[in-house]
Specification:
Length: 118
């Protein structure tokens, strides 16, 4: 049974930091590109960051320099370190796993809420 379980969300003040985790199970983690997306109220889901099996990374422009994605293949876990958080970062953050190179399997977590507010 495939599972992606996010954790680490919560309430943080502007300028603060959070680290999200996504624990994966039920598939061969090292064969998947791992991604983070987010969805703010009333908005479409948007890409945040990704890390390929070999460690290559990609970030949305608005997250560059503030967010860092990392993965631990031994623990089947992907992380998102978020620094200098802004109120506009408030959203539900989702973990995604996409089989490479075919993309035939695409899995989603249930999401974790991040709220940036004073």
């Amino acid at each position: 049974q495939v599972q992606l379980v996010e954790s680490g969300g919560g309430l943080v003040q502007p300028g603060g930091s959070l680290r999200l985790s996504c624990a994966a199970s039920g598939f061969t983690f090292s064969l998947y590109i791992m991604k983070w997306y987010r969805q703010a109220p009333g908005k479409e889901r948007e890409f945040v960051a990704s890390m390929g099996p070999g460690g290559s990374t990609n970030y949305a422009d608005s997250m560059k320099g503030r967010f860092t994605i990392a993965r631990d293949n031994a623990k089947n876990t992907v992380y998102l370190q978020m620094n200098s958080l802004k109120p506009e970062d408030t959203a539900v953050y989702y973990c995604n796993a996409l089989r490479v190179p075919t993309g035939i399997y695409n899995y989603w977590g249930q999401g974790t809420q991040v709220t940036v507010s004073s």
